[in-house]
Amino acid sequence: MLGPTGYGKSTLARLLVPRRNYCVAFATKRVDDTMDKFKKQLEFKVQKTFRPEVSNRIILKPKIDPDDTTEQRMEFDRAMSEIFWQGGWCVCWDEAAYLSDFLGLKQKMSLLLMQGRSLGISCMTLTQRPVFVPVYAYDMPIHFFFWKMRLDRDVERIAKLGGLDISSMREIIRDLQRYEFLYYNKDTDETIICKPDKH
Predict the structure, then answer these.
(1) Residue 147, exposed/middle/buried by CB under 10 A (0-12, 13-18, 19+)?
(2) Closest Cα partner for 111 from 127, 102, 96, 123?
(3) Sheet arrangement for strand 143-146
């Protein structure tokens, strides 16, 4: 899921998550409206450390300290390892660039993206721009969701990294209005423009 802040990525993720029985959302912000809605509307349980025996709908929110990210990084890293060994989980990475680049979790994220499908693991990778996230976030998925992108180089980067033929979609992506998005299925080459209800 690729698009600017405030355009609807998190809302769509919240609508898709109930399709999976086991889901963990990685909370990277000290205050996060998205995770509050996961908790209230979807009955997710907040955990500082990954404890799947307690709940199958988890918001993983380790200690967030701007001066020392060690604990946050270790907890997210450990959770991804456990998810890899257990299989069957849906992982929701809101702010994927923060996890990959800032916390240095690119290698572990790449492992789940590369091998997750055969283990029943699905990865929802949400990011604002196609930078600072593993290349596998564009190469491995079947389902892509694009919101308005103003920079042609971002569209070109997605096409190059994902091996997508989206040259015909460039104008569509640039012309999308707020909350509209383009769905693209890499296997079937199907595209759908999705618009919000007017009420």
Answers:
(1) buried
(2) 123
(3) 143-146, 181-185, 190-194
In angstroms and rounded to an integer, the radius of gyration of the C-alpha atoms of the chain is: 16
DSSP code for 140? S
Where are the domains positioned within the chain?
Answer: 9-194
| d(C-alpha 59, C-alpha 38), whole Å | 8
The Cα–Cα gap between 27 and 141 comes to: 22
Q: Identify the architecture of domain 9-194 in CATH.
A: 3-Layer(aba) Sandwich (3.40)
Q: How far is CA 176 from CA 24, 68, 73, in A?
A: 30, 39, 36
Other beta carbons within 10 Å of 83: 23
For the record, the structure tokens of 184 come out as: 């693209």
Give the strand pairing for 181-185 and 143-146.
antiparallel
CB 65 within 8 A of CB 115: no
Taking Cα atoms as reference points, which of 143, 129, 139, 48 lies closest to residue 95? 129
- pLDDT tens digits along 75-96: 999 999 999 999 999 999 999 9
Rounded to two decimals, the pTM is 0.89
What are the φ/ψ torsions at residue 10 (nearest 5 degrees)?
A: -65, -35
What single DSSP character describes residue 177? P
